Amino acid sequence: MAREVLTFVTGNANKLREVEEILAAGGVPLIIQSRSIDLPEIQGTAVEVSKEKCRRAAEIVGGPCITEDTSLGFVALNGLPGPYIKWFLREVGTEGKSTQLPR
What we know:
Blueprint: E1 4-9, H1 13-25, E2 30-35, H2 46-61, E3 65-66, E4 72-73, E5 81-82, H3 85-99
Parallel strand pairs: 1-2, 1-3
Antiparallel strand pairs: 4-5
Protein name: Inosine triphosphate pyrophosphatase
Organism: Rhizoctonia solani
Family: Belongs to the HAM1 NTPase family.
């Protein structure tokens, strides 16, 4: 019986290897293929951003896929920066982010 193929939308070989190891350890009989796709960044909550990213990726690959999206929120900042962590770090850096947190 042929194993099903699942596309992991990433250009990061380390992330691909990690997903393959996790699924193999869990006995998931899938072939994981990677595909690097530049997806637009949407505005929304971490859940909304993740769902839309995966929905758009599935349309492009023409089938089931998984995506990965990183989010980091601080209670002291009411959940910010959330899914915008990459933008926040680019604009204020790690030192700038730490000065925004209460001491």
